[in-house]
Amino acid sequence: MEPYEEGGFAFRSAVVGGRVPQEYVRAVEAGCRDALAEGPLGGHPVTGLRVTLTDGATHVKDSSDTAFRTAGRLGLREALRACAMVLLEPVVEVTVTVPEDAVGGVLGDLAARRGRVTGSVTRAGAAVVTATVPLAELFGYATRLRSRTQGRGTFTARPTGYAPAPVATPVR
Length: 172
What we know:
This protein is α+β, with helices and mostly antiparallel strands. It has helices at residues 22-37, 65-82, 103-112, 141-148, and strands at 2-3, 9-13, 49-53, 88-99, 116-123, 126-134, 154-164. It comes from Streptomyces afghaniensis 772.
């Protein structure tokens, strides 16, 4: 098991000599996918992982797809519990357009929402602020922005990826 920078999940078999038939290799992969769908951190899915099956053995009486799938699921669950995992949260890029006289309050509000301002320009009496903000912090933002700007502020948001969640973030 190792990090997979491209995100998602990658599985490969390095078993040599046919010690594990291909049908059972596929069952181990399915078991790993089962384990990743409900990870050890609050049951959230796990992503960014590459798993390599290095060896195995079959037994005439006890080997089955179900047995190998279960082995893959339980083995990966155990490995995940033993490693240093990081809980990630979705992050969005927001572009906020407000009257110039409201920009200070908007910057403060974004900072209070764990936002990181990445740019700010002023044109024709309006300020355009861009920032990255955890998605969880944006709930209620439209109402707050309208209130802060007397209905003259607007914003757009687009997903940009994931970032480590603070340790104090509750696992739901």
